[in-house]
Amino acid sequence: MNRAEALKQIITFGADKEAAYSELVKFGYDSDFECFVVSKSILQNVLAKYLSDEITADDLEEWANFVECRDDLDHEVIEGYIYAIANPYLIDDIDKEKIMKMVQLLKTP
Fold it and tell me: Residue 62 falls within a domain, yes or no?
């Protein structure tokens, strides 16, 4: 598994997510790797996992912190959402109502 595949598994909650963490630590922090883009559709899919109880609020917060701290992930398009999820005290904790509002906002052009 290369760096891009590992990052994709982690940020999409893929079937090989746990193995991807082990693989990712094998790569140096700095690299010539082109950033993996965390798109609106990836965020929408992750939020859908939370809304369908596939992941918990803690999982969602940890995911957002992972995305936010990685230099090899480009999340510029969804930066505000990631910041809010990674810092739930700013939105008075994560709950389904707030996440549903985020999903609605993501659907507007």
Answer: yes
Written as six digits, the tokens of 19 are 């193995």
Contact 54, 39 (CB under 8 A): no
pLDDT in the model for residue 98: 92
| Number of domains making up the chain | 1
Residue 42: partners with Cβ closer than 8 Å, 6 or more residues away: 11, 12
What spatial distance separates the first Cα and last Cα of the chain, rounded to whole Å? 35
Kindly provide the b/e burial profile for residues 56-87, where b requires at least 16 CB atoms within 10 angstroms of the residue's own CB.
eeeebbebbebbbebebbbbeebeebbeebbe
Q: Is residue 20 part of a domain?
A: no
Q: What percent of the chain has pLDDT over 70?
A: 94
**For the segment 23-38, what is each residue's pLDDT rounded down to a tens digit?**
988 887 666 667 889 9
Start-end of H helices in the chain: 3-11, 17-24, 40-51, 57-69, 79-86, 96-107
